[in-house]
Fold each of these.
Amino acid sequence: MKKTHIVAIVMILVAAVILITASGDVSTYATFETAKISGDRVKIAGVFAKDRPMVYDPVKNANWFSFYLTDTDNKTEKVILLKAKPADFERSEQVILTGKYQEDTFVADEVLTKCPSKYKDEEIALRKKSPNKAIQ
Amino acid sequence: MDEIQYVGEHLLPGIIGNFALVLAFCTALLSAISYYYSTKPYADSKWSKMGRISFWIHGVSVITLIACIFYVMYNRMFEYRYVIEHVSDDLPMKYILSAFWEGQEGSFLLWMFWHVVLGFIFIRGKSMFESPVICILALIQLVLTSMLLGVYVGFGDSMYKLGSNPILLLRDTVDLPLFNNAEYVSLLKGNGLNPLLQNYWMTIHPPTLFLGFASTAFPFCLAIAGLWTKQHKAWLKPALRWSLFSGGILGIGILMGGAWAYEALTFGGYWAWDPVENTSLVPWIVLVAGIHTNLIAKSTGYSMRSTYAFYLMCFILILYSTFLTRSGILGDTSVHAFTEMGLEWQLVFMVVFFTSLAKLFFFFNWKNIPAPKTEEKFLSREFWMFIGALVLLFSAILITVSSSLPVFNKIMSFFDATYVGRVIEDPIPHYNKYQIWIGVFVALLSGISVFLRYGSRTIKLKTLFTHIAIGAILGVLLVYLFERWLGLHAWQYRVLMFACSFGVVSNLDYLISVIRGNLKLASSVCSHFGFSLMIIGVLASGLNEQVISSNSFLLDVEQSERLGNALPLYENIPMFMNGYWATYKGDTLEGFTRRYEVDIRKVDENNNTLEEYTMWPSAIYDKDMAKIAAFNPDKRHYWMEDIFVNAQVPSPKFDVKFAHEMEDTLRYNDYILTVGDTFKTENSIGILKSIDFEPKHKDFNMDDNDLGVGLSIEFQQDGKEEIYEANPSLGLKGNLVFQYPDKLDRLNMKMRIEDSFFETLFTPEQLIDFENKVLKQNETIDYKDFKITLSAFDRNPQNDLYEAQDGDIAIAAELTVLRKSDNKIFALDPIYVLREGRPFSIKDYEASSGLHVHFANINPQEENFEFKLGMDKRSSMSVPVQIAENMPATDFIIFEAKRFPGINFFWLGSTMMMLGLIFGFIRKLRNT
C-alpha cells in the first residue's frame, strides 16, 4: 500500500470520527415544552408576542430584556434575553433564541431576528398619492 | 381594450438591451458549437475563427447589455423594473455601481463581464488550448446568460420561468392598476439602495470577488482541455499561472468581505463562519490545494490526477456557492442571502450540468492520465506537499458538509414532510474546534516542507533536523512570549500557536539560509509566512478580545453578574470603565446617519491622562428615516490593537411608532400655575419662574410661529441639590397651535402647556385697564415701559381681523414702539373703522410685552388722534400645565467598547498570503 493511501485512509477515519462527534453540535429547533424537559441549551424559534408586555430598561440594565415569545407549538411564554434589545425587534417576523431554562424561565444569551425583506422593500414607491390605492 | 399610449417611457434602451441579451445568448451557443468542431482532428480553421468571432460578439453584447442597464439606472428611468428596485432619486451617483450589483441579475452580469474580459485576454494569448477552453467558457456563459433571459418555457401544462430579465419594463413584470394611468411613469420613485450597502466596500468587494470567481473558470476549462486533448502535461503551465492569479484575487475578495464586516457591519468580527462566507472560502482552499499539486505535477509528474480533480472541483464549488447564496435555501442561517429570484431549479441544473461534464471528462480519461509507477520518497517535497493538499481538501470537506446542512434539511423534507430541520447550535465554536487542527498541520507542513527537495535530491537528515530544531526552539520561545503578552487559555491553542510560530520561524529561516534573500523565489515563503502570522493574529484577537465597557463598580451584585458588554452612558456624565473615561456628548444627523459623539480618555492607575480622543459610533436609518437599520461601530487602530466602540439608543429616540406608543403610556398630572408658585409634583418641587413670550424651548423658532409662549419652571428632586430648568412652550401659526413639550431626562419628567392656554392668553377686554392718550402725527409719548411714536397712517389696512366692506372708511395708525427695558422696537397697527356711520376699533397687540392698543378716535379739527393703551395682567395669569414623571430617560446611549489586541497580525498575515500568490503569478508571467 502506498504511503499516500495510508494517509488518505487515516483522514477518512478521522473524518468519520469528526462527523460522529459533530452530530452533537447539531440540533433541531426546540419548543418550550422540549426545552423544559431536557434542560439543555437549545435554540427556540418563535414569534414575538406583540400584545404582551415587554420590559427593557437600559438604565437599570442594558443587557436584560424580557418579552413574550410564541413558539412553533403556539405556546406563549415569558423569556429573558441577556443582551441589549435588538434594534429592529418590534418588526421582526421571527425570533430565534439560544439559551436554556433556568428555573422556570427560558433565559437566552443569543438572539437572531429575522425581518421581513431585509434588503428590499417589496412595494413600489410612488411620488405622491395616486388614485390607484391598490398598489402593493 | 385599447392599448394605452404611455407618456414619458424610454423604450429604446430596453430594445437595445434585450437585443444584446438575445444576441449574447445565441453567440455563446454558436461560439461553443464552433469551438467544439474546431477541436476535431484536421478541423477546418474556419471553425475556430467562427468560434472566436462569435465569442467576441458575445462579449460585446454582454457589455452592451450592461451599458444599457447603466444608462437607464444613471438616468433614473423608473419605468424599468431593475431601476425602480435599486435606484432612487436621492441615491448618490457614486453608489450607482453598488446599486447595479446589489441585485442578482447585476451580479450575474458582473461575473459574466469578468469571464468576457478574461476570455478576451486568453484568446489574445494564442494558447494551444484556445478551442477547448473557450468552448467550455462559452458554455458557462450560455448557462449564465440563461439566468437573465426571463422567458417562460412550457413543459406540458406547467410553465417555467427561465431567468430574470434585468432590462424589462416594470409594467411587463407586474400587473398593477397603476398602469391604467397613461402618465404612470411620472408617479414612480425608486426604492433605492439599502443604506447598509451605501459604502465604499460595496463598491470594491463584489467586483474583486467576482473577478476571483470568474478566474476560477480558467483552471477548470484548462483541466477539461487537458483531458479533452489528452495533453496531460502541457496544460499544467498555463493552469498554474491562472490559478495563482485566481487564488490571489479570490483570496483578496474574501478578505475584503471580512474587512467590510470588521470595519463597518458587525462589532469587530471578520469571520463568522456564515454559510455564504464558507462557500466562498471552500473553493479557495481547494484551489490552493490544486496549486500545490500543480507544482508537484509540473516538477515531478506525480499528482496529476489530483491536480485535475482539485481544479475541476474548485469551479464546481463556486457554482455550488452560487446556488446556496442565490436560491434562498440558506434561509435564516445566513446574513448574506440575496432576494430570491425563483431560479432555484435553474441553479441546480447549472451545478449538476457542470459537475456531470467534469466527471465525464475526468473518469473517461482516468486511465490515460500519467502517474509514475514508483511511490514518492518519504523525505521528498512532493510527498509532504501532497499531504498538505490532502489536509486542505479535508478542511474543505468538513466546512462544506457543515455549511450544507440546510441543503440536507431540504432534501430530507422532500422525502419526509414531517422532517424537522437541523441547525448547528453555535456555528463559530463548531467550525473552530476542527479547523484548529487543520491550521496546526498546514503551519507545520509549510514549515518543514520548504527544506525538502523534489524527487531524489533528498536533503541531508542532519541539515533538516537542524532547521526543524531551530524552528521548534524559537517556536517555543514565541509561545512563551505570546503567553506573557496576552494568553492562550487552553492546550489546543498552545499547540496551534506553537505550530504557527514554527511556521513563521522556519519560513524566515528558509528565506535567510536557503534562498538567501532572493525575493524572486520568495513568493511561497510570503504566503506560508503570511498564513502562520494570520493564525497568530486570530489567536491574539479572537482569544483575547476584551470588553472595556463593563463597570466593576456596580453595587447591585445580582445585576453586575448578569451584566454583559453594554453600559448606559448619560449625556455629559463621564463614566469610568477599565482604564478609560467615556463621555457621551450628543448626536448629529447627516443624511441617513446619526453620529454619536463619545469622548474617550485613557488614563493610568493614578488617573493621569494617557490619551484623549473622540469616537463617532453611528446609526444608519432606513430609507424613510422612521427606523434605524443598523448601528455602525467606530474604531481606532493602533499597531498592536484596535479599539471598537458601538452605540445603541433606546427605542423611542429613533422609532416614530414606538415614540407614539411610549407617549400613550405616560401618566400626566394637571397643575394650574401662576408665576412665583411653588408646587409639589410626585417626586419633585417646582417653581414657575416666569411666563416668556419669547419661549426658550430649544426647538422653538419664532419665524415658524406667529406667536409663542413658554414657561420657565425650575425643578428640584426631593432631597437632591441639582436644579433643572424646563421650558415647555406653545406656538401659534394661523389657527394652529403647536406643542413644544419639554423633558428632563434626569427626573424622568415630561411636561407640556395645555393648548387651551392660548384662549386665556387673549385677555378679555374688560380685564384690562385702558388709559386714553392723544397723539399728533410724529409725536412721541411715554407710557409705562414704552416710548410710542405715531409714525404714519395706512388707508388700506391689511389685518386678519378686519374684513373690508363697501362704504367702510378704515385707517390704520402705524405706531412705532420702543421698549425701554431692552430697547426692543416693534410696530403696532390698530385700525379705526367707520362703518355705516358707526366707529369701530380693531385692537393691535404685542405679545411679548403684553401691550394692547386701540385706535379710539380721530379729531380732524385738532389734527390729533385718540388711542387707548393698556397692559394685560400676565403676572397673574394662571397656566394649565401637564407633567408626567414616568418618562423613560432618553439622553443616553447604550455603549459597548472592546479591545482587539494583535488584530493587525491577522490583516498583515492574510494579506501577505494573498500577495504571495500574486507575486507567484507575476513571476510565472515574466518567465514566459
Note: Confidence is low (pLDDT under 50) at residues 117-122, 128-136 of chain A.
Amino acid sequence: MTLSRRSVLLKSLALGCTAAASPFVTPVSFASAPWDNRLVVILLRGGMDGLDVVRPVGDRDFARLRSGTGDNHAEQSVDLDGFFAAHPSVNSLMPLWSAEELGFVHAVSTPYRGKRSHFDGQDMLEAGTGQAVGSRLRNGWLNRLLQVVGVEDAQTAFALGHDNQIVLSGQAPYSRWSPDANLNVSPQTMALAKSIMSGDPMLASALEQAQELAMGELSGAVVPEIDENGRPVGREPGMNGSMDMQAARPKLDSSGHVALARYAGWQLSGSARIAAFSLNGWDTHRRQDVALPRSVTKLADILIALKEELGPIWDRTAVLAVTEFGRTVRLNGTKGTDHGTGGAMLFAGGALNGGRVVSDWPGLAERDLYEGRDLMPTRDLRAHAAWVIRDLFGLSVDDLERSVFPGLDMGPRSGLLI
Amino acid sequence: MRFDPELAEFRFGYGLSPTLPAPADARQMLQRLMLDDAAAERFVIPGFSSVLDRMQAINALRRKRRKSQSDKAAEDFLRERRKLVRQMRRDQLIWMGATFARRAWTRDAFRERLVAFWANHFTVRGKGSVTPWAVTPYIESTIRPHLTGTFSDILKSAIKSPLMLQYLDQRSSRGPGSEAAQRMGGQAGLNENLARELLELHTLGVDGPYTQTDVRELAELLTGLTFHPSKGTRFNKKAVEPGFETVLGKRYGGDPGDMADIDAVLEDLAVHPATAKHIGRKLAVHFVSDTPSPDLVEALQQSFSETGGDLIALYETLLYHPSSWDPSAGNIRPPLDWVSAVIRALAVPPARLTPAKNDTFFNRLPEALARMGQPYEQPPGPDGWPEEDAGWLTPQALAARLQWAIGAPQLMGGDLPDPRVFVNTALGTRVHERLRFAAHAAETRADGIGLILVSPEFLRS
C-alpha cells in the first residue's frame, strides 16, 4: 500500500525546503556536526562515458570498439596502471593521482536498467532505493543519511546550485544555496528590507538566512564558525594573516562550476560536512572528442578548486562523482555514444585511498556486454558509496542497508578508504 | 468579511493594475468568466495541434535517417532537430510573454488564475525534441476551453491529451495479454504511472478510498489510450488488455475495449465524494490560505457534490464565502504569479513582453524564475508546484526575488515610478506604516521599487 506515501512526501517536501526558512528553527545553529570528515557528492548529469574517461586500453577489444573518435587513443591517453589509461583531459589531475588522492571505480552502475532515460536514471541515482521511483519521489540517500544520524542543523549539509537535488531532499533539514545568488544590496536597503519584513516571521527568517549564506557581502553578515571549543574555525592561523571569515571568503568571480566548488569548500571548512552539486554536459551523442574534454576539464577544475579551498581539511574529505549511466561501447554514426548502462565513478580526497582503478572488469567481448551494446556493470555503485559513508561517518552496515540505501547488499568492503 | 475589490485582485487575480479597474463584485467576476475570452483573443497562443505538426516533422526526419543509414541523413536529422529545438525554445518564450501579457492586461484576472490552477492540477512536462517547450499550447487547448464546464469535462480533456499521455507514460503502456504485448514477446507491458496519478493526484487524492489493486485494474482499463502525432489522441485496440476491469468495485471494459470505457471510468471518478473533498480543499488552499477555514472547505466540497462538479457553481461558492475575504495575510505568491503581478503593477507594455535582441529584462526572465525556485514550465513532478508557502521561502529564492525586484524593473522600459506614489498604486490600502516609511527612505528609486515588491504586502495574496 502506498496510500500514505503522499502525505509523507508532502511533509518531507515542506520540511526539506523550509527547515531553513521556518521561524521555529534557529537560523544558524552552532551545534557541532556529528563527525569531522567531509563528503562531497558530484552528480555528473547526462551519462558520463566511463569508457572514454577511464579507457581500458589493456582490453583487447577496446581499440576495435573505439577506433575513430578523432583522438588517437593509445598514444594520447595518460597511463594509469598499465590496463587503464585516462582521457588526455584528465592530465591536470595527475598530481592528485600520484598523491593517491584520486582514483576511479569502473564497470559500476545503479540498479537502473532497460530504458536508459536520463530522467529515470537520475531519479534512481539520487533516490538510492534501487527501485524505479515515481517521477515525484523527492527523498534522497544523502538526506536519509542525515535522518539516520539525527542531524538537526540545516547547515550540516548543502545542496548547491539552482537545480533541485533530489539526493539531499527529504525530511532532514539541509541548506540550499547558490553562490551566484548573492545579495548585492546596500546596507541601507538591507536594513529597510528587514524592517518591512519584521512583521512576517517566515519572511524575516528567510531573509536573515539569505544574508548569512550570502557570505559576508554585507558588513555584519559574516557567519562566524566556531569549533567545539568555541574557537572560531578558519584557515590555518597565519595562512592569510587573519581569522576574519570575510578574508577567507573565496573569490566567486570564477565561472559557475568553480564558484560552486569554492563555495562548497568554504562551507566545508566550517561547520558543514556534506555538500552536493551537479555538473551537466555528459550527454555526448555527437563529436564526443570535442564535447567530452570540456566536461572533464570542468570536473578537474572543480576538484582542484575544492582541494585548494579546503586546505588541510582536504585530508579528511571524500569526493564521489557519480553519473546516471554509462554509454554504449560502440561509437554511433555521429562520432558520439548513446545511452548505456555500466560506467565509471570517480573518487578523490585525502581521506580516500586513490592512485588506483577499482574494478571487477567484465571484458568487452561481445558476450560480455550488457544487451550486446553496453559495458556490463559488475557492482552497484551504491555499495561503494555505502562503504565510504560507513568508514567516513561511522554508520552501521545495518543502517546503510536498511535506511540509507534500502535493500542494498553492500557486499565485501570496497576499500576506497585507506 | 465580505467582498473587497482590492482583495479580489490580490487573492483571485494578479494584483492591482494602475490602469485597469478592479472588479466591482463577485457577480461581475463570474459573469466575465462566461463572456468571451478577450485576453486570449488579444494575446494569441496556438493550440496543441501546432505541436503535433512539429512532432510529425521530426519523426519523418528520424525515419529517413533510419532508412538510409547514410551519414548525410544522420547529419540532416541532427541539423533539423537543432533548428526545431531552437525554434521551440524561442516560441516558448514568445508564449511565456503572451501569458504574462494576458495576466497584466486583463480585467478578467480570475480567469487567468483559474487557468494556472487547473494547469498545475493537471501538470505535464514534455520529453524528447519537441514537447519540453510545448506546455503553453497544451494549456491553451486542454485547460483553457474547459474552465466553466464540469470537472468531468476538464478531467477528460487533460487525461486524454497527448502531452499527459506522453508525460505519464500511458503511450507505452500495453495490456500484458494484449495483441501488441504478445507480438513483442514480453518486451512491452503495463505502465501504472497514469493510473496511479489519476487516482492520487487528479481525482480521489492520496487519502482516497483506493488500493493498489484499483491502480492496477485502472491501468489495465486505460490500455489502448494513446496518441499519434498525425491523428492526435486515439484508441489502439491492439494494446488493450482483454477482459473486464474492476475499479472501486465497479466493472468496466469487456471485449472489445473502446474509448467509451475510459470515458465511463473518468466520469465516475470525477463525481466521486473523495474527489469533491480533494478538489474543494485544494481550491481553498490555493486561493485563500495554507490552512483554510474548515467551513470554506466544507462548502466547496458540498457544492461540488451537489452539482456533480459544476465548476461555475464551485467558483461561486468560493467567491461568496465570507472566509474567502478574510483580510489576514494570504498565501505567498509563487515566483511566476509574483512576477506577473510586478508586470501588472508596473504596467509593462505588451511590446516588451517578447524576446528581443539585447532585452536583458525579458530574455533573462527564465533564468530569474529558476533562481527564484520556479524554473519555467519545469515543475518537480506530476504533483506540480507546491501549494505551501514554505516551499517558496528558501533563502536563496528570496534573495533572488530581492535582487530581481531591485534590478529588473529599471530594464522593463519606461521610467521607474516614484516609490512614494507606486506604494499606493501597487498596494492600495494594504500598506503598512513600515513599508510607507521604507518607500520614502530608500536610497534610490530602484531600491524603493524593489523594497515595495518584496514587502509582505506584495509577496502575499
Note: The mean pLDDT of chain B is 94.
